[in-house]
Specification:
7-stranded mixed β-barrel, 209 residues, 30% strand, Glucose Oxidase, domain 1, alpha/beta
Length: 209
């Protein structure tokens, strides 16, 4: 069995949402001087591959330490949406209706995955339209993941986030799927257990037989 990493690599040069955050990795101890290596890592809760907790957008939503880990592991389907140029709507998802089952984890492979992991933020990334979010609620999926640092774009009401989180659907952002063939896989993506956090970085993998 092989683990296929689909996580966004973290470095000081990482792409950040709307270029507003930076990652700092500073040495605290160096081998030549201290005989060991140790670093200070500074990042936000939404750095790279991360999981949004309901508390991110819901007033009384759970923080990341209270979200059931079972929502981030299980059978997933990677959908080929490389031809989408703007929004993933309900109509586009209906074309894959037979591939999406109840309690599935659905991952969107789009042209976002072709953007380098250190490029400046792209404000025109492919995103999930609120109609697509409602479709996924109706299908009964347990999690949805997208290959950019946000799942919605330019919506002050944050409808896509709210629709999914109110339905208990976990949101995983910042996946890297250019090297992944569409299809079904066992999947795992566990967020860090940060007490009281609105989100947390995670490592996402697919299991390949």
């Amino acid at each position: 069995m092989k683990l296929l990493d689909i996580s966004w690599p973290i470095s000081a040069a990482i792409t950040s949402y709307k270029d507003r955050y930076i990652v700092k990795i500073e040495p605290l101890k160096e081998f030549e001087k201290d005989g060991v290596r140790e670093s200070m890592i500074e990042l936000t809760s939404h750095t790279g591959t991360h999981v949004d907790a309901p508390a991110h957008f819901l007033r009384d939503g759970k923080t990341i330490d209270h979200v059931e880990l079972e929502r981030f592991a299980g059978s997933c389907v990677v959908l080929d949406l490389m031809d989408v140029t703007d929004a993933i709507t309900d109509e586009r998802l209906e074309e894959h209706d037979g591939e999406i089952a109840d309690e599935d984890i659905v991952l969107f492979k789009t042209t976002n995955s072709l953007i380098a992991a250190t490029d400046p933020f792209n404000p025109h990334f492919v995103y999930l339209h609120e109609s697509g979010a409602r479709y996924l609620v109706e299908k009964g999926v347990k999690a949805v993941g997208i290959d950019y640092l946000g799942i919605e774009r330019g919506d002050p009401s944050h409808a896509t986030h709210t629709i999914l989180l109110e339905a208990g659907i976990a949101i995983i952002e910042g996946l890297r799927l250019a090297h992944v063939e569409p299809g079904e896989y066992p999947f795992m993506c566990l967020p860090l257990n940060v007490i009281g956090a609105d989100a947390a970085p995670a490592r996402a993998v697919l299991l390949i037989e």
